[in-house]
Amino acid sequence: MVNVEIAYRQCEQMIRQHSQTFYKAFSLLPEEKRKAVWAVYAFCRIVDDIVDEGSSPHEELKQFEQEFTLFLNGVMPLNNQYMWVALKDAFSRFQLDDKPFFDMLKGQGMDLVKTRYETMNEVLDYSYHVASTVGLMLLPILAPKEKVALKDGAIALGLGMQITNILRDIGEDLQRDRVYIPKELLLKYHYSHLELQHGIINSDFIQLWEHMAQEAEMYYTRALETMHLYPIASRTPVKASALFYREILRKIRDQGYRVFSEKQFVTNDEKSTILSRISG
């Protein structure tokens, strides 16, 4: 069996490697909460990698869900043992709810069967399953006494972040033959799927992009309105993650909406500036 401290360190390496944004934000947490966040992140990352990089993703995702069910019943899976060891410790310290974990698995499975979306409501349903669920997983760690009061805000933050991901990763998703821009918005702004495939940035595309960006901004605003309910130790990390992600939208605007060939990031210096404003 993997030592629990070593298991947590491997989870930390995973979040540090794959998400500097979340790593920087949640490094501000007290140690016990910080480690639990690493474990939850590792769970989500492994599932994400199965869907995006697995050789037989349908079967691998089904097997992973079976392993999670065994884990909940006290049986330690052999695959990815470091993650399960860390997650077991996190479950023992915090009253984690298994429902958002299963909902997230369902959402990742959507990517294996659905690559086009008709309506914004469909996009929001997908976004809830792959992103809002993460916030719901983390609430018992970040704000155990305010889980109910913060639920809507956590869902809103996930929606804002996932729409931001969609708007940032348009080119990358096209390479995977995935289009998360809903057909109803393509039609509304007279922007064709052919133009999307060719990466045409024109006034129609910018209006379409801004429509979704404004929706993301609305969800960020809704989430930020609930920040005062988080305990002080958790408030800054959660607020930082929201502001770091929202800053991506500004970066894309500043770079002329070049989302087909570039992927915009918030630099460490920019993150430090945002953090200084929060804590200042």
TrEMBL record:
Keywords: Carotenoid biosynthesis, Transferase. CDD domains: Trans_IPPS_HH. Pfam families: SQS_PSY. Gene3D superfamilies: Farnesyl Diphosphate Synthase (1.10.600.10). Pathway: Carotenoid biosynthesis. This is Phytoene/squalene synthase family protein. It comes from Metabacillus endolithicus.
